[in-house]
Amino acid sequence: MAAAITLAAEAPKLSSANTGFMLICSALVLIMTPGLAFFYGGMVRVKSTLNMLMMSFISIGIVTILWVLYGFSLAFGTHNGLIGWNSDWFGLSNIGLTELWDGYTIPIFVFMIFQMMFAVITPALISGAIADRVKFSAWALFVALWLTVVYVPVAHWVWGADGWAFKLGVIDFAGGTAVHINAGAGALGVILVIGKRVGFKKDPMRPHSLPLVMLGAGLLWFGWFGFNAGSWLGNDDGVGALMFVNTQVATAAAMLAWLAYEKIRHGAFTTLGAASGAVAGLVAITPSGGAVSPLGAIAVGAIAGVACAAAVGLKYKFGYDDSLDVVGVHMVGGIIGSLLIGFFATGKGQSTATGVFYGDHSFTQLWKQFAGVGAVLAYSLIASAVLAFLLDKTIGMRVTEDEEVAGIDQAEHAETAYDFSGAGGGAARTAVPAGVGADSKKVDA
To answer: Which residues form the signal peptide (predicted)?
Structure first.
């Protein structure tokens, strides 16, 4: 009887503090998707602005419904190491209001909605790679299929209680593999199928609104604190606070490192470089921030800032048209952040696992990170390419060349982002110096 009383006393109870904290974090993660829409919307030319906004916003609608119907059950139900299932979670039909997420002090509903926001933004990240040229209807169908075939299984591998990567010990605090490598590799798979924009490497394709880019980056940075710190699912032991600190530190370091690289390589500190560097740091610290110290976070951010700044030029060398550098920032940044855990993990954060620089001379954790990174990258790349190929051969993925040249906003949405008719027509725009812009700043890379 005494043992039973002790066990009952140790059972988790619903914490109003942690529940409220996680609901706030969920809202912060949601605001990242409109932030991403502004970030991408400012980076494209005027004629594609609305399409970029809509490609993110439609993800909110589609993923929300599918996550409720079956996504959450497949991703986080217990079934096997590759995919999950829980019939009680189908349509969220049999979940008690105060029923707790196993081992935690928050309701299942709270965990579900927090993870929904991750699922929403991940396919939206892909949209930046295929700007200017994809049918909106094809994109909407791709989001639904990609969530089901790619995101849900990978999320189960990495975060599911019986996921193979989770059981192996792969560390991914908040989505370096499941979100960023997954989206970046998926983007690469799609663009290899659908091809380049009309005028790629010939026509200037500079951002039409750098203030909009900076606004989007600011919203992403703000929301990312919920994305990262909230992934500890509570605020009881200081690990979430460590992640919050490391998120800020790594992002600042990456921004500075990107700007330094840009100044040395291209001769200017650009606003686009500052925004892109910040995002690179956010991406890299996402998997690693709970395992490294603040000094380690500086190293993670600085390495990611330089590496991602260098990586965005690879599209010109290899000839793939990654419109807004999703591969260079999210895939490369996710890989770097995930692998650096194997070097900088202190063993004093989210787990006792250590990296090479903290005594793991057998490279145990590093090899685990390689396994997770390699599996997610390969699966997402291949599966995403197959989905894009099937859609392209059936309903067609691309708008016509004439529609692309004239502007996808008018062709797909019958609208334009800006109406200059009441201001005396389209006034001449100030010329952008050569070497500054989303594409032109990297043409010599």
So the answer is: none
